[in-house]
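Researcher: Please predict.
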Amino acid sequence: MSAGAEHELAYEGRPFDRPDEELTDQGLRFDVVTVMSRRRILRGLGLGAGVLTLAACGAGTTTSGSSSSSASASASGSGEIPDETAGPYPGDGSNGPDVLEQSGIVRSDIRSSFGNASGTADGVPLTIELAIKNLTNAGAAFAGVAVYVWQCNREGGYSLYSDGITEENYLRGVQVADDAGKVSFTSIFPACYTGRWPHIHFEVYPDQASVTDSTKAIATSQVALPKDICDTVYATDGYSASIATLAQVTLADDNVFGDDDGASQLSTVTGSLTDGYTVTLKVGVDTTTTPTGGGIPSGSDGRPSGAPDGAPPSGMPSGGPGGTPPSGAPSGGPGGAPSSSSSTVG
């Protein structure tokens, strides 16, 4: 091999993933790293989002309409899912209520409460599909793991915690992954409340028996929802408060997704208002790493940089973002539950 050929085996100081192929044929992982490297450089120079978009397009990304939206430059679960805060309203026993101890929590339709509660969350229908991958087994389907999902309602409130719905337990549920490593939940599209990008929380446990102990979670993370779909949903009845709150936050500023603009957590969404939407995300889990999710970012109050002050939408948790957990909630707990003095965004 000539000296010139050896020189061509690297780009911007990084070795080719496919040494025998051209630069343009190095694959998605190489392209994503290129885009993210450029993103960090451009941010350091103070350049705007338009330049970042051009950089992303240079990596072969595409955009789509409101009926199908996905991460623009994401490996979308090809690596380990980032560990994230569980927020102040997990309902897993780490910060007050523990819905995972209740009979009936293992279910696919999470729109209605169960047990002694009878409320139902209204909103645009949403199916949540997560494909769990075992990174310690070459990314094979992680069959048998249990996934706990929870989210806010269309007013921005969380069952078990929010004023008026503390006796409800809807929009919370557990499913066990099938042989393909997949879980599916029937839900509603969540609101956007003050200080946070629209999202869905989840925890992954090694098996169903482990879900009653939040310290046994092997991954804690969140799913980000694409802006174009959010804009469409929030223009419908019941979601009007989310229009203003979405305008106050970006993926880049969000305290959870801002590290990479949600590249590894931004879901693909398909469907329509008429038929409902389906959210899908691949979730890579590495059981050889130590889970770090559950707490708010070190040195942070949980609010994104530059997030405006203001009252949260009606139905937000008592104290909401910038406030305190519900009365009686522990000051700390497994998974780094926030203290009552913390200003925390879930």
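Model: The longest strand covers residues 125-134.
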